Amino acid sequence: MSGLLLTDQGTTMSTDEPSTSTEMAEARERYRQERAKRLRPEGLGQYEELTGDYADFDRDPFVEPGFTRDAIVEAPDVVIVGGGFAGMMTAINLGRRGIRNVRIVEKAGDFGGTWYWNRYPGCMCDVESYTYLPLLEETGYMPTEKYASATEIFSYCQLLGRHFDLYPLALFQTEMDTAEWDERAQRWQVRTSRGDELSARFLVTAGGILHKAKLPGIPGIDQFEGDAFHTSRWDYGVTGGGPGQPMDELGGKKVGIIGTGATAVQAVPQLAEAAQELYVFQRTPSPVGVRDNAPTDEAWFASLEPGWHEERVRNFTQAVTGRKPDRDLVGDGWTKVMWEDTQTAVDDPELAEELEASDFETMQELRQRVERIVEDPEVADRLKPWYGKHCKRVCFHDEYLPSFNRPNVHLVDTDGRGVEAVTATGVVANGVEYPLDVLVFASGFEVTTDLEQRLGFDPKGRGGVAMSERWHDGAHTLHGVLSAEFPNMLMISLVQAGFGTNFLHFLSESARHVAWLVATCIDEGITTIEATPEAEEEWLKVLLGVATKIASYSGNCTPGYYNSEQQRDAKAARNLVYTGSLLDYAGYLERWRDEGTFTGTKVVRADRS
Q1: Which of 419, 441, 463 is the last residue of a domain?
Q2: How many domains does the chain have?
Q3: DSSP H helical segments within 275-348, as ranges?
Q4: Are 512 and 387 within one domain?
Q5: Is residue 54 in some structural domain?
Q6: 80 and 225: one domain?
Q7: Would you call 542 exposed, middle or buried from its count of C-beta atoms within 10 A (0-12, 13-18, 19+)?
Q8: How far is 254 from 40, CA to CA, in rounded Å?
């Protein structure tokens, strides 16, 4: 089987030489061995929340301390929890439907969500900005680059806040304390960390996909006496500089970074330039393809016809889910690497072999890219990813691999075991202690953990039953949005909902659906709406049916957040995401809305009919 792959020059090269059965057999065995090294019986339990002993890791370094304001007492139509893209787009869609009596409760000091918190050096989006950034046609904004920096994306969030007049709705530097359904008032009674009392008809949890940072549960992690922080709380007071500015305080320091995922791939080149010595602690290497960023062609952008943005968003999702649109409008590493869906099971044995070979060839080219760039053969070998292309999020970067050619950069590969301990003065890996002045955790975010854990509060539904109680065995939802016994609570999260390479496509579809639900209930005099338990189980059957199609592929993957660290229990089975195409998930929502019968829900109208 042959294929076309992106090279470092941005052109394509042919891979016409077929993979021999020997190569494939060797690859399968190597994949199996590498997976086995990384399996952890505790699954998601190997990570720590940024609470308790680790609360200092969760402080907001981007606001001035001492902020206060008077508590408010209000009765809004809607309380939205979260001021990232999900919350903002929900508020925007509600506003379009004439619903402005809304409050947005946001922990951060401004809009942005992930893009408020992620200000680490080198941070940018790995999906092209013309596809990722929402509402570009409405705002008339032209991204400056194909892949926008975090600084630009945060600024765009602020632009959205101004353009759609969202700032008067926001309660920043405010966290949820409690949210409890009041059956008598038929409203959600919300209390916040600022003493606010909000009596809301609808509660929308838009806590985001990548907002709750996690730490690896390494012994002694809280004992380090040097400077330590998570990448989503980057401390420029320690490193010097700022986003896009040199970190001038690291010149004489030994820095360690734990993690080699999408965040570290971007931060490592910046740290490599600034630190006296940089130690990169690796459990599992990431596949790293060509990014090939470039300034936006202004003439091209000006030539785009109305409706271009929605078309481009859908085209990208088609391309990266194996739908193979007639034209590849984006034409980057993502669409080339993911053009072929190699994870969904097929009945034809010959086709199955071809897909396996295609997957191998794609990953082999990424491994060969490491060989071409990294000069030390031993280091290069340890940077090669040995798993399928759908197992972890593929990274695209042009400076990460060359960083390991620098004499001050040291790869500490743990052969799948991870770091053993953190001491007062450094990190222990492979039985060796590495003295450090600064320790950076690039350990990512919670994705498929219990929803109330990621939200930071435990909603109490009818009868005072908390979500953690009703969901003790895992999530119970219809479409990941509505849940029985939680009237008028609408959720935007990955749990039992869609998933895609372009997170903003999912958030856009979800925000549109949630706003439709709220507006329709108000227009039709619906007092309460919730899922029925029967519909929840039917939706779970749909989710499991789709998941079965990739179960064999996923089961052979190395652990990661895509597969909940290979955690296999009843709770993990209910907390799964819709593993099919995001377009299919959006289709479920669209057909449900078009039916207009609220199938699978318990609806109470003002006249009690």
Answers
A1: 441
A2: 2
A3: 298-302, 308-320, 333-337
A4: no
A5: no
A6: no
A7: middle
A8: 30
Q: Coil, helix or strand for 179?
A: strand
SS3 of residue 214 by DSSP? strand
Q: How far apart (Å, rounded) are the C-alpha atoms in residues 406 and 272? A: 8
Last residue in a domain, options 441, 470, 495: 441
Same domain, 266 and 358: yes
CA distance 481 to 53: 33
Bridge partners of 489, per DSSP, are 203
| DSSP code per residue over 378-412 | HHHHHT---S-TTTSPPEE-SSHHHHTTSTTEEEE
User: pLDDT tens digit string along 371-408?
Assistant: 999 999 999 999 999 999 999 999 999 999 999 999 99
Residue 30, domain extent: 4-38+216-292+342-441
What is the Cα–Cα distance from 5 to 364, expressed in whole angstroms?
Answer: 11
- Helices 582-595 and 308-320 pack at an angle, to 10 degrees, of 130
128: how many CB neighbours lie within 10 A of its CB?
23
Which whole-number Å values give the CA distances from 399 to 123, 134, 288, 364, 396, in the listed order? 13, 28, 10, 20, 10
| 3-class SS of residue 49 | strand
449-492 pLDDT, tens digit each? 677 666 789 999 999 999 999 999 999 999 999 999 999 999 99
Residues 6+ apart with CB under 8 A from 255: 271, 275, 277, 278, 279, 436, 437, 438, 439, 440
Span 177-220, pLDDT tens digits: 999 999 999 999 999 999 999 999 999 999 866 556 767 788 89
Model's pTM, two decimal places? Answer: 0.91
Answer yes or no: do 285 and 399 share one domain.
yes
Residues 180 and 288 in one domain: no
